[in-house]
Amino acid sequence: MSARSVEVLISVHDPRRPLGRCLRSVLDQERSLVELGVRLCVRVVVHNTEAEAILSTLDGDSCRRIEVSELHDGIPSPAGPFNLALDEARGEYVSTLGSDDVLEPGALAAWYARAVETDADAVIAALRLGHQVVTTPYLRPGRRRLLDPVADGLAHRTAPLGLLRTATVRRIGFRYTEGGHRAGEDIEPALRMWFRGGRIAYPYAAPCYRVLEDMGAARATAGFRPLGQELGYLTSLLGQEWLLNARSAERTAITTKLARSQVVGSIRRRVKAYRRTGLDAVWSMADAVTCSRVVQHLRYLAGDGLGALSRSESAVLDRAQTAHDAEALSCAWAGAVEGAAQSLRRVLPVRTAALLSPAARPRTFCTQQIAQHTGSFTHPVPHPAWVAGLDRAREA
User: Fold this and answer.
1) How many CB atoms are located within 10 Å of the residue 343 CB?
2) From residue 335, how far is each of 289, 299, 307, 339 by CA, in Å?
């Protein structure tokens, strides 16, 4: 394994992806890394397509500075190629990057400096979605040297973006969830890293990983599928030995996040789609059965019946289990969430004793507001010329 090195891992499955833009943002990191005495490696895994078709979209300089592997498994999931890249990686730290996304100038050097400063097993990337910094995880006030997975709400960052120490990746069995899942394959390994990896740090005031959404529906995570397929990765996640043996507070943090973001979040998206398009296929009785099974499993694993969820969130989960079609789901959502009468229920937890739980809405809201006002999520805005370059690359 190479000392003082960062290896960036990228998977690409379609020549139409903006890989050239992605790679340029990575290769431009090299100068700032060299100043720290750190070597940059870039590994691209071409997935279920011909490497020649992908390489033909790149300039000669980019082609010369990357290592290319191929994986032809016929499975439409990024789990396989990212696991192959992890197996082949030789860098001290690895960093995964979506082919649609970019790294802001100086990001890798800032993250690496933070890793050295704290002897971190992982540095959670500062994340910018479009032009807006993502204010998760729910960091406690003050720029803490290391993060606590429960107190700092690390369950709410379920993408393992940033820097991961390669030795730690292998020690804890970090693997993307295989099985053909088109989304969610990164949730279990991210949680495993944050809760079992060891020393986790956040790069305050550092440049960001930037998620770009200009590919629209072409992203692998777009569209609606049966709920059983969309949440299929949860079957493996909820049976993981490390999670079953986790402390009560850890299981509460993780299951509350999964119920709130993955299950309630999916229901919210389907209700919005139905109301916008009238598409009945967004929900069926089979989805209601899947919802019931998943919610029961989460409540059992939580140990407190998901008592940190808001009362509205819990009501959504209860009502969705008996919603036989999209219209019934829309009505269930309206009855549980909408209207002035539900304002307090959208905040108050199911169990009053959970009011100050790190996973409860009042606590996460206050923590988030304090973190924003004290500068925890203040990150440098890239020069306008760099942003304009992204636009030109997209148009090209």
Assistant:
1) 10
2) 20, 22, 20, 8
CA distances from 286 to 102, 262, 283, 292, 384 (A): 38, 17, 8, 10, 49
| Radius of gyration for the alpha carbons in the chain, expressed in angstroms and rounded | 21
**Res 394: pLDDT:** 62
Instruction: Name the residue among 312, 315, 308 with its Cα closest to residue 351.
Output: 308
Express as a percent the part of the chain with pLDDT over 70. Answer: 95
Residues 6+ apart with CB under 8 A from 156: 136, 137, 138, 257, 261, 364
Q: Is the pTM of this model over 0.90?
A: yes
pLDDT attached to residue 393: 66
User: How crowded is residue 225: how many other Cβ atoms within 10 Å of its Cβ?
Assistant: 13
CA dist., res. 92 & res. 1, Å (int): 6
Distance, CA of 266 to CA of 272 (rounded, Å): 10
Q: What is the number of alpha carbons within 13 Å of residue 91 lying toward its C-beta?
A: 23
Distant-in-sequence, close-in-space partners of 166: CB < 8 Å, separation ≥ 6: 1, 7, 89, 90, 91, 92, 93, 94
> Which band of pLDDT confidence, cut at 50, 70 and 90, is reported for residue 303?
confident
Alpha-carbon span 107 to 101, nearest angstrom: 13
